[in-house]
């Protein structure tokens, strides 16, 4: 691990030599739809980019409504980066209303998306419930984020060709960090029996994580946090928790904790902490970057299963 950190430090030094800092006026102005995308852009763009996030840390994307100020911000940008897969249903309207003439990309382009609501959900009376055709939370699988990185790198090069050496090198270094992260996540669950890899979370944001790392997530809410679970469905979920003796439930940083606390109380389970799903934490928090978020969630989940 020490050698790996030295290598990353060396790569960062090389990046500075390849691409000297640019003035504030010359920086590529990038608008990112939400905090996770914003972090990925900063990881690749470094000091050559000026990133504005429409939806910031600890903020629920599902409740976001574009403002005239957002349209003005977008009009002055060189590049807008969104997740896609239906996550930003307002994106086309905002771009059109702003008069944006820059470059726009969908970071998830090329990813094999999972269908939203493809599984039955106890909290919705056993019926699938989805607002979009696809589950948009593709970033919850590290392998998918490698595609995000490539798309963001290529988009930055398209709008800032002189920065290509910097973007290429930064993306390569970050991909190595993602490789190490993926190995760490898989190792964290390797010794935990599959029968114990079951989790209750606030809403269905972890399907990609579950499929990639062998964890089953149950949730009282669907893909969109604005989906209301039925009373019958919640009761069914509580009975399942009791029947299968699940001991821990989790809230999420963007969710109202009242529902999960009610489920915890009635099912006799403990609230195991806060997971980060659709938004990073504030800079001083435990999940201020994508890698920190995935590492933090993994440690919290694995500890609860042991």
Task: Describe, in plain words, how this protein is organized in 3D.
By secondary structure, this protein is an alpha/beta fold. It folds into two domains: about 1-110 and about 135-180, Nitrogenase molybdenum iron protein domain (Rossmann fold, 3-Layer(aba) Sandwich); about 190-305, Rossmann fold (3-Layer(aba) Sandwich), CATH 3.40.50.1980. About 45% of the residues lie in helices and about 15% in strands. The chain contains ten helices and eight strands. Strands 2-1-3-4 form a four-stranded parallel beta sheet, with helices on both faces. Strands 5-6 form a two-stranded parallel sheet. A two-stranded parallel ribbon has the order 7-8. The longest helix is centred in the middle third of the chain and has 27 residues, at about 165-190. The relative contact order is 0.14. The model is unreliable at about 120-130 and about 220-225 (pLDDT under 50).
